[in-house]
């Protein structure tokens, strides 16, 4: 190839640009920090290993450098905290999850009211409005789940292979949540249920944009997404519009009823009523701004619940379908409870599903990413082992190191232990230092009790009504994309049980 005089400046500028990016991103690790894992390629660092070989890469790093250690991914240093350190991170207010999540899950760009204050209100709402009322929601939950099962799976007098299992279960999970969030009237609207089911999936199309610009700085990638949204690309705007259309007349009627009936007004049991009674959302007129605020708040709850819960119940079904040695034992428990309640579950009877609960816990233990749940260090912090985490550092939770530790789960921790929870008096919703699916400590997921109940009720109804198996007759491998795990895609075979 001939180089003309004119091409030389172009090569010079390319070299200067690469050098500047490298200089900006060159990781500066202090002596007292966790050890930095060496890497071969400037700028790229460990990015390729992390996204294409996460499980083996982090296991090798853990064995060689201990817990914690530092890696260099997408232009920034990340500290990886495993079984020994993660608990300290979760129990210290210096480490903040929402701050770190904004860089990879920029919900604040599409839901403008998403901020630390709103997140605090969401947590309070879930605890007081949902968890505290679980017994009152149980009957409605199972009714809505059965409507969805009949719609999504239906009659299987002949064996039926359902390929899009995870998408189907997003709809099954969305319906009871819609009932609780926006009430029994609005949750009958199929377009609202679909909006709830599809919201997170469509938002993930934003998250799926390759973060190439993060090699310069994570904020550059976020600004790029912001520009796309400013110029009209919004895959989730239609869902907000759908909810607003149905929500306005219901809220207006409730305000009018309160005014007319006064003390005789009987408040419906749902989250929109809870919000209207709270000081932050109290109003005398339903304006567009108020409606936007309520809708965005509800979709924050949707985005942190439906996708994860539907993935968990899908993975649990695959585990059940691929383990015929468990079928009779778990089925017999469901039959016994069904006879006891005559088809109408109560919270007390859901709590009696001890074998199913233990099975769900074990499925959740194995439905894990290699690493996830980033926390940003808000102030320089010295760990109990003497290592220092600098201000601004993102600490990733090495979940596989926690869930597969040999001290708790034996010499072969990847073995599926269906009754480990039952034998050790550990429920599926109970967090501890060896089980981080719902976080840990003071910052554990407040919606985990509802999520586990929803999963158990869904499995209970499905196992009672269908024989469920995998096409291969064995357990199917989960789909691994980078450090993240997703349900298998081979499909499940459903066949009506003989009554």
UniProtKB/TrEMBL annotation:
This is Cytochrome P450. The chain crosses the membrane at residues 7-24. PROSITE patterns: CYTOCHROME_P450. It holds the Pfam family p450. Belongs to the cytochrome P450 family. The lineage of its organism: Eukaryota, Fungi, Fungi incertae sedis, Mucoromycota, Glomeromycotina. InterPro entries: Cyt_P450, Cyt_P450_CS, Cyt_P450_E_grp-IV, Cyt_P450_sf. GO terms for molecular function: heme binding; iron ion binding; monooxygenase activity; oxidoreductase activity, acting on paired donors, with incorporation or reduction of molecular oxygen. The keyword Cytoplasm does not apply. Keywords: Heme, Iron, Membrane, Metal-binding, Monooxygenase, Oxidoreductase, Transmembrane, Transmembrane helix. Gene3D superfamilies: Cytochrome P450. Its cofactor is heme. Heme binds at residue 445. It comes from Diversispora epigaea.
